[in-house]
Amino acid sequence: MTPADVDALIDRQPVGRFQLRVILLCLLVQFVDGFDNQAIAFVAPALIRDWHLSRASLGPVFGAGAFGTLLGSLLIGPIGDWWGRKSLILGSLGLVTVLMALTAQAQSINEMLLYRFVTGLPLGALIPATIVMANEWSPRRNRAAMVTIMACGFALGAAVGGLLASLLLPWLGWSAVFNVGCVASAILAVCALAWMPESLRFIALRHTPRRRAQARVLLRRLDPSISDTVTILPSANARARSTNKVAALFAEQRMFVTLLLWASFFMNMLVLNFLNNWLPTVMSQNGHSIEQAAQVTTLFQIGGIVGIILMGAVADRVEAWRLVGAAYLLSGVMVASIGVIHGGGLGQPLIVALAGFCVIGVQMTLSALSATLYPTSIRSTGSSWGIGVGRVGSSLGPLLGGVLIGWHWEMPSLFGVIALFSLGGFFCVWMLARIVTRPRRQPIASSRVSRLWGG
Q1: Which long-range contacts (CB under 8 A, 24 or more apart) does 278-281 make?
Q2: How far is CA 191 from each of CA 194, 195, 299, rounded to the nearest angstrom?
C-alpha cells in the first residue's frame, strides 16, 4: 500500500461533481434547518390570534427553541467527532421529522414550548455538522467560498418559510407550516442516506478494516485515476494532543481564540435570533397585516442570502477579519435603523434587507471560519461548541425582546439596545484577529486561515 496524506489528496483535486453533490446536500440540510427553526416566528402572529395570547407570552417559547438548539450544539454536535459527520446528520434529521409532526398537533402554549425545546436539540447539531462536512470535502483554495455559499441554505430555508407561511396561514392555518417541515425533513433524510458520503478526513483518523474499505471507495469516486494501492493517512495536524475534546479547544495556545470566537458568536446570535423571532410580531403590531409582516421579514432572510454569497465569494481574496468586522459595524447601524424608519414605502423593507445582509452574512462567515481553527479530530467539537455557546445569545435574544416589549418599550429604544450587541461583536472580532495574526504564536492548524484572517 502507498500512503498518502488525506489533506493533500483533497486539496489537489479540482472541484468536481462529487464534491458539489456533498455541498448541495449540506445546503439542503441547512435549508430544512432554517425552515424548521424559523417556523415558530412566522406562525407567532397566528398563534397570538388563535390562542388569544399576549405578545410577551411567546418570549419563553422562542427562548425554549433557542435553548434547545444551544444544548443540541453542545451535547449532540460533538457526536460527529466520535460516530462521524454523516451519522450525526442522519440521526438529527430523523428526530426533527418526528418532532415537527408533534409540534403541528400542539394544543396549548405549554405544549408548544415543550415541543420547540425538544425539536431544538437535533436542530442545534445540524449547522455545525454540515459546516464541518462541507469544510472537510472542500479543497483549501476554495474552502471559504464553498462553505459560506453552502451556508446560504439556512437563510434560504427561513426565507421560503416566510413566503410559504404567508400563503398557508390564511388557508390551512399555522399547523400546516410545521407539517411541511416534517415532510421536507423526512425526504432529505432519505436523500442524505442514499447520496451523502462520510467525511474522508474523518475516516482517515480511523484504522478499522471497514473504514479502510470505505476510504478506498470514496477515493475512487473523488478521483477515478487514483490507484487501488493508495491508502490515506491523516494529516500531521489532524489530531489534537488532548483526548478530552472540549479541553483540547483550550490547549496548544487555542484558549483566547476559542473564548473570543465564542463571544463573537454570542453577540451576533443574540441579534440574529431577536430579529428572527420578533420581527414578524413587531411588524404585525405596527400597521402590517400578518401576511405583510411575514413578507417584509422574508427580506431579512433574502438580504442574508446575498450577504452570505458575497462574503463567501470574497473571503478567499481579502482579509476576512476586516470583512467580518465591517459587517458587524454596519449591522449595528441597520438594526438601530429598523426602529427609527417605519411606516409605508420602501424605507423599512430596505433597512430590514440590509440588516439581514450583515447579521446573517456575519453569522455564516464566522461559522465557516470556525471550522478551520481546529484540527480534524476536534473540528466538530470546536464548531459545535462555538455555535452552541453562541446560542446562549440566541436564547437570551428572544427573552430579552419579550421583557422589553412587556415593558412597552418603543421601537427606537428596543432596536437601539439590540444594536449595541453588534458593536460588542465588532470588538470581539478585532481582538480575535490580533491574536490569530500574532507572529510565532499562531494557535490554529492551517496556515491558510492565517491568510484568511489577514496574516
Answers
A1: 278/41, 278/62, 278/398, 278/401, 278/405, 279/41, 279/352, 280/41, 280/42, 280/44, 280/45, 280/162, 281/41, 281/44, 281/45, 281/48, 281/55, 281/58
A2: 5, 6, 29
Cell numbers at 448, concatenated? 491558510
Helix axes 17-51, 209-222, angle to 10 degrees: 100
Amino acid present at 140: R
- For the segment 14-29, what is each residue's pLDDT rounded down to a tens digit? 888 888 999 999 999 9
Task: Tell me the sheet residues that pair with 232.
Answer: 4
Nearest to 290 by CA among 166, 414, 374: 166
Write a three-state SS string for the chain. Answer: CEEEEHHHHHHCCCCCHHHHHHHHHHHHHHHHHHHHHHHHHHHHHHHHHHHCCCCHHHHHHHHHHHHHHHHHHHHHHHHHHCCCHHHHHHHHHHHHHHHHHHHCCCCCHHHHHHHHHHHHHHHHHHHHHHHHHHHHHCCHHHHHHHHHHHCHHHHHHHHHHHHHHHHHHHHHCCHHHHHHHHHHHHHHHHHHHHHCCCCHHHHHCCCCHHHHHHHHHHHHHHCCCCCCCEEEECCCCCCCCCCCHHHHCCCCCCHHHHHHHHHHHHHHHHHHHHHHHHHHHHHHCCCCCHHHHHHHHHHHHHHHHHHHHHHHHHCCCCCHHHHHHHHHHHHHHHHHHHCCCCCCCCHHHHHHHHHHHHHHHHHHHHHHHHHHCCCHHHHHHHHHHHHHHHHHHHHHHHHHHHHHHHCCCCHHHHHHHHHHHHHHHHHHHHHHHHHHCCCCCCCCCCHHHHHHCCC
Cell of 153: 441554505
This prediction has a pTM of 0.74
Alpha-carbon gap, residue 88 to 167, rounded angstroms: 33
Q: How many whole angstroms separate alpha carbon 187 and alpha carbon 96?
A: 12
Going by C-alpha positions, the residue among 320, 358, 315 that lies closest to residue 336 is 358
Contact between residue 403 and residue 414 where contact means Cβ atoms under 8 Å apart: no
Window from 5-9, 290-294, 334-338, 347-351 with minimum mean pLDDT: 290-294
Rounded CA gap, 169 and 340, in Å? 29
Closest CA to 170 of 277, 288, 291: 291
Residues 6+ positions from 244 with CB-CB distance below 8 Å: none
Round to whole Å and give the CA distance between 333 and 355: 8
191 vs 310, which has greater pLDDT?
191
Inter-CA distances, 11 with 117, 201, 278, 365, 407, Å: 40, 12, 43, 21, 55
